[in-house]
TrEMBL record:
Domain (Pyridoxamine 5'-phosphate oxidase N-terminal) ranges: 38-156
InterPro entries: Pyridox_Oxase_FMN-dep, Pyridox_Oxase_N, Split_barrel_FMN-bd
Domain of life, per lineage: Bacteria
Pfam family, any one: PNPOx_N
PANTHER family: FAD-BINDING, PUTATIVE (AFU_ORTHOLOGUE AFUA_6G07600)-RELATED
Name of protein: Pyridoxamine 5'-phosphate oxidase family protein
Native organism taxonomy: Bacteria, Pseudomonadati, Pseudomonadota, Alphaproteobacteria, Hyphomicrobiales
Organism name: Acuticoccus mangrovi
Length: 214
């Protein structure tokens, strides 16, 4: 199959577009550069987004961000800010932004099959007045990601309709796979850990969720 994939690889935009019909005028026209009332309302309802970045070496990364609805601050019609909460301190998103400010954001609202996309240029800030507005449970984030908007548009519902993401009937039982800690331990140690170590690691992770969520 690998040989077949290579033989049928697409290498240029003209070849790519030859496999598809013309872009609809509405798909082009819907993109705009400043937040309107509908964009603001969507962002205000959003509890979860993903942010795509790329480092100086060309390696891409996508990272989730989540908080209660309204956690993304609209600073003006062309600027938004996202708090950075405690994590694993890999800092992939932030180091990428320092090397390459181009970012892509995907905003998701539970129950909404359509999504909001924003492409822009990001920078990092520790501005005290901004961070104070982002405090949760008495804890202020270390920094915020501020995005200057280049392009905004709504994305249609096809992907969510196909995946049935919000359909309760499509929910899967997490217990059918090993826990997060069990998987990571197996991947890093090269063998399945014993159940006692897994239980201990799971307990530590749950405690960290409580203590270091904010």
């Amino acid at each position: 199959m690998v040989d077949e994939i290579t033989a049928h690889a697409i290498h240029d935009e003209a070849s790519l577009r030859g496999h598809f019909g013309a872009t609809s005028p509405l798909a082009v026209a819907k993109a705009h550069t400043r937040l309107d009332r509908n964009d603001r309302a969507f962002i205000a309802r959003t509890p979860f987004l993903t942010i795509g970045t790329q480092g100086a070496d060309g390696r891409a990364d996508v990272s989730p961000r989540g908080d209660p609805p309204g956690f993304v601050k609209v600073l003006d019609d062309a600027t938004i800010a996202i708090p950075d909460r405690p994590g694993n301190n890999r800092l992939d998103t932030m180091t990428n932004i320092l090397a390459n400010p181009a970012v892509g954001l995907l905003f998701m609202v539970p129950g909404f099959d359509d999504t909001l996309r924003i492409n822009g240029r990001a920078r990092l800030t520790t501005a005290p007045s901004l961070l104070a507005t982002m405090a949760m449970r008495g804890r202020t984030p270390t920094l915020a990601i501020v995005v200057a908007i280049d392009e905004i548009f709504l994305h249609c519902a096809k992907a969510f309709r196909r995946s049935k993401l919000w359909d309760p009937a499509s929910r899967q039982d997490r217990s059918e796979l090993p826990s997060l800690t069990a998987i990571i331990m197996e991947q890093t140690e090269g063998q399945k850990p014993d159940e006692a170590r897994i239980a201990e690691a799971d307990e530590r992770l749950e405690a960290a969720y409580v203590e270091r969520l904010y």
